[in-house]
Write a structure and sequence with these properties.
Helix content is 77%, strand content 4%. A 3-stranded antiparallel β-sheet has the order 1-3-2. The protein is mainly α. This is Putative GntR family transcriptional regulator.
């Protein structure tokens, strides 16, 4: 039985690599490994009690995602400059405002119900972590309502590239009411079948969030010398 179990693990290294990719990516996005942190496959494999091969594959995939960069002894968590963050947001604003306008045309009653459910949850809490998760859920629900998997996949990658600098829970808590109002205006425009308004409200929302991230990033750089 032990031999069969070992053989099964050897026969499906990519499944294990996918699991390691998901685990490490989650840790990156919740701030477990701040930008600049060195990740060594030997240390990670020992910590997780898995072979080095799936960890190596996971780290290579995370580099392709733009979350890590190669270092002499492993990979470092990618640190983005303010200009790089601006470039990411330029692409995100174009794509997600288009997704909002597309959702006006393509959304189903179930999509609209999901968006309204997310809004209702946002009104029911002031917990910073819950608000951050709710914000993430809102954008996922909106992209789903656009029914364009390619745009959703690209946006997911762009989100991750800026989120590794931190979820900015404090700022989300301070501006919770503003965020809720912006989200509500976007959903109202989708429900009203107003693509122009949906696009404009999404652009305004993301422009504000972009500016907050840039200010926070510059503050971090100043604090770090």
């Amino acid at each position: 039985m032990q031999t069969e179990s070992a053989n099964e693990r050897e026969s499906s290294p990519r499944d294990t690599a996918a699991e390691q990719y998901t685990l490490i990516r989650h840790e990156l996005l919740v701030g477990h490994y701040p930008p600049g942190t060195l990740l060594r496959e030997t240390a990670l494999s020992a910590k997780r009690n898995v072979s080095r091969t799936p960890v190596r594959e996971a780290l290579a995939r995370l580099e392709q995602d733009g979350l890590l960069s190669r270092a002499p002894r492993g990979y470092r968590v990618r640190h983005r400059t303010a200009n790089e963050v601006l470039d990411i947001y330029e692409a995100r604003i174009i794509l997600e405002s288009h997704a909002a306008a597309t959702a006006v045309v393509r959304h189903t009653p179930l999509d609209l119900a999901k968006l309204r459910s997310v809004l209702a949850l946002a009104r029911s809490t002031d917990d910073p972590e819950a608000l951050w998760l709710n914000d993430t859920e809102f954008h996922h629900a909106l992209r789903a309502a656009a029914h364009n998997d390619v745009i959703a996949e690209v946006l997911e990658r762009l989100d991750a590239q800026v989120t590794i600098h931190g979820p900015y829970v404090r700022r989300r808590a301070e501006g919770a009411q503003i965020t809720r109002s912006e989200h509500e205006r976007i959903v109202e425009a989708i429900a009203d079948r107003d693509a122009v308004a949906a696009r404009a409200h999404m652009e305004a929302h993301l422009n504000r969030v972009r500016d907050l991230r840039i200010v926070s990033l510059l503050e971090e750089q100043e604090d770090g010398g």
